[in-house]
Amino acid sequence: MKRPLPVFFAIGALLAASPALAEAPGDPKAVKSENGKYFDAKGDPTYNIGADGAVDWYAFSGYRRYHAECHVCHGPNGGGSTYAPALKESVKRFNYAEFAGIVIGGRQNGNSVMPAFADNKNAVCYIDDLYVYLRALSTGAVQPGRPEKKEAAPEAFKKAEAECMKK
């Protein structure tokens, strides 16, 4: 269930222009699955780790996208750097809507500036995946580094990816 891009832009504009309004994320435990994507009790995207240690496809995809787009500033495995915060800690405070708003709309916090990624399809098309991966890192459900085992990519993922990338 990928969210349409206009929804992201609206969330980003609202959150970038106002103080933090949302509540902290809830328990990351998956309570619902839809087309290979997992959701918590609040309906936010979350991770699922199989009995064999395999991560769900979206967490694996988030790992790939994080290391393609985010790790240069935020450090390997969400650990932060001298000029950008540790995202694996930030997702403990930011719920999905806040996270999406910051990624899409950018944010300035003192001298620290997070650029807007609204035009970066490698981030926007995979925003759920990024959030899922960082949530899994933040709880220790996945360890730093490339997950050893993963579920196969669901057809719904492939379809959503193709649709988002051609826009």
How many β-strand runs? 5
Percent in strands: 5-15%
Please state the second-level CATH architecture: Orthogonal Bundle
CATH class: Mainly Alpha
Strand order of the largest sheet: 1-2-3
In total, how many domains does the architecture comprise?
1
Protein name: C-type cytochrome, methanol metabolism-related
GO molecular function, one term: heme binding
Pfam families: Cytochrome_CBB3
Signal peptide: 1-22
What does this structure look like?
This protein is mainly alpha-helical and 167 residues long. It has a single domain (5-166), classed as Cytochrome Bc1 Complex, Chain D, domain 2 (Orthogonal Bundle). The protein is 44% helix and 8% strand. It has seven helices and five strands; from the N terminus they run αβββαααββααα. It has helices at 5-17, 57-74, 87-90, 96-105, 121-124, 127-139, 155-166, and strands at 32-34, 37-39, 45-46, 107-109, 112-114. The strands form two sheets. It has a three-stranded antiparallel sheet. The radius of gyration is 15 Å and the shape is globular. The two termini are 17 Å apart.
Features:
single chain, about 170 residues, mainly alpha, Cytochrome Bc1 Complex, Chain D, domain 2, two-stranded antiparallel ribbon, 7 helices, about 10% strand
